[in-house]
C-alpha cells in the first residue's frame, strides 16, 4: 500500500511517502524553492517523493492532507462571530482568500496534482485527518514504543491547540484537547513578537535568548507574576486560559495589543534591529520558565490519563529542546520520543501514517531498535556527477578522494586548525535541524568559533548558540546525559568536570560580557547556563558523519564537533551541490566538503555574482 502525505497552505509545506507503512521519503518544499517556510503546494517535494519511491502519482492508494480545511473555516467564522464587531478589518482581509482557495481546497489539490500527471478519472482516495491527529501519528507510529502517551502542542490546528492521546498498537485515541483561542504555542509566539522576532520562525531565537536572563534578578519573578495573573491562567493539568483583552491574534492582524503589553511590562515592543537589553533577556527567561512548567504539567496529566510508561511528542512546541530536556529530567516516563519534524512539515508524514493504520486498518510492526525515522535522512541525495557538473559550472577547483577515511582525516585536520567547513553528505534531513547531512562544522574547543560562525558565516545575531555533535557512546564524557539524542531536540548540561567557574559579577554582566566568557573546554557549544543542545551521532544512521567525528577524536582527543545548519540567515538549509557551492562562496567559510570532494576557498575563482543574499532571502 502506497500513501502520499501532504502539508500545505499555512507554513512549512512538505510531502512524505510511505510504502506498506515504511517511511521511504520526506522533504519540505522550501528546500527546493529556496523560500524559507514556503507555504505553497509542495509540488517539488511530491515529485521528489514519487521519484524516490519509484512510482507515478497514479499508482498511489491514497493522498492524505494533514488537516480538515472546512473545520478550520468553521473555527474562523465562529471566532469572528464571537468577537464581533472587533476584527472586521481582519475578517475582510481573510475571507476572500478562504472563499477563493481554502473553502475549495479539495478542488485546488486536484488541480495541482493534475499538473504532476494525476489522472482524475482514477479517483485515488483523498483523505483529511484532523491536524492534531496528524501530529500525534507523526510521533507515535515511528516511535519504538508498542504503547505510549502522546502529547501534541502547537499554535492551533482546526480548533485544538494541544492534545493528549493514547497510542496502543495501530490505534490512537484522543483523550483530551485544549481549544482555540487558548494556546501555549500562541502564547510563546506572542512573546516572540513582543521581543522583536518573527512569528513562526523566531521562536527558537527566543528560546536561545532566555538563558541570558539573570536568574537572580527580581524582574524574573515579577514578569512571571504578570504573565500568570494578567495574561494567562495556568491550570493543574497544564491547560492555559489566555486573557483575550491583551491578545490580537484571534481577529486582528498582529499577535498582541502592544499598548497594553508595554504598560504591563514597562518597556516598548522591541523592533528586530533594536539592541537586546537585560529586560528583554529577563522577559525571555520568564516566559520560557512558564512554558516549561505548562509542558511538565501537561505531561503529568498525560501520565495520569494513560498510565503509560513512554511518551511521544509533536507539534511546534515540541521543538523547544530546553523544555524537552527539563521534561526528560522530571523522570515521568521511562523514555520520550520526539518527532524530529515536529512542526507542520511533519504533519505530512503523520497524515500518511494515520491513513495507513487507522483508515486502512493496517497493523503496526515495531521491529526497529531505535525508531523508524532512519535518522531523519529522508530527503534528496546527489551523485559524484552532480558535484563535478556543479564544479564545471562555476569553474571550481576541487580535490577528489578515493578513500573516505583519508578524506575524514583531512577534514578533521582542517577543523582542528580552526577552519569552518561546509559538509554535504548523503540524503538531506527532514525537519528543521541539520544533522550532519547538510551542516556547517567547526572545532568546539575554539573560543572564537561561535562568534565567527554567527557573524561571518551565518550573518545572524551573536547570542545564538550552536549545537555539539558527539559520538553516541561518548556522550556522557562531555555532557550530563547518557542517553540518545539523535535529532538535536534535547538540552542537557555540560559535564561538571569540563566547566570553568564564572566570575563573582557574572549575573550582573550584560549580554556581550556573558557571551564571550569562556565557560568550559568546549566554549563554542556551551551556552551561558552551561547547557548544550546535544546531537548524538550513530554509526548505523550516518556512518560518514560518525567517521569524521571519530577522525577528529583520533587527532584531538575530543569526540565532539560544532554543528549548525548549512545556510545563511533567512535561507532554507541547502539541498543540492549547487546550493552548497553558492552559499560557500557568498560567506567566509574556509572549505566545502561534498561527498568525496573538498573545495578550498583560497583556490576558487573570484565570485563574480554580485547578487545580495540579504535581498534574496527575507531575514528571519
From TrEMBL:
<dbReference type="InterPro" id="IPR031730">
    <property type="entry name" value="Carbam_trans_C"/>
</dbReference>
<dbReference type="Pfam" id="PF16861">
    <property type="entry name" value="Carbam_trans_C"/>
</dbReference>
<dbReference type="InterPro" id="IPR051338">
    <property type="entry name" value="NodU/CmcH_Carbamoyltrnsfr"/>
</dbReference>
<comment type="similarity">
    <text>Belongs to the NodU/CmcH family.</text>
</comment>
<dbReference type="InterPro" id="IPR043129">
    <property type="entry name" value="ATPase_NBD"/>
</dbReference>
<dbReference type="InterPro" id="IPR003696">
    <property type="entry name" value="Carbtransf_dom"/>
</dbReference>
<dbReference type="GO" id="GO:0016740">
    <property type="term" value="F:transferase activity"/>
</dbReference>
<feature type="domain" description="Carbamoyltransferase C-terminal">
    <location>
        <begin position="412"/>
        <end position="601"/>
    </location>
</feature>
<protein>
    <submittedName>
        <fullName>Carbamoyltransferase</fullName>
    </submittedName>
</protein>
<feature type="domain" description="Carbamoyltransferase">
    <location>
        <begin position="2"/>
        <end position="352"/>
    </location>
</feature>
<dbReference type="InterPro" id="IPR038152">
    <property type="entry name" value="Carbam_trans_C_sf"/>
</dbReference>
<keyword id="KW-0808">Transferase</keyword>
<dbReference type="Pfam" id="PF02543">
    <property type="entry name" value="Carbam_trans_N"/>
</dbReference>
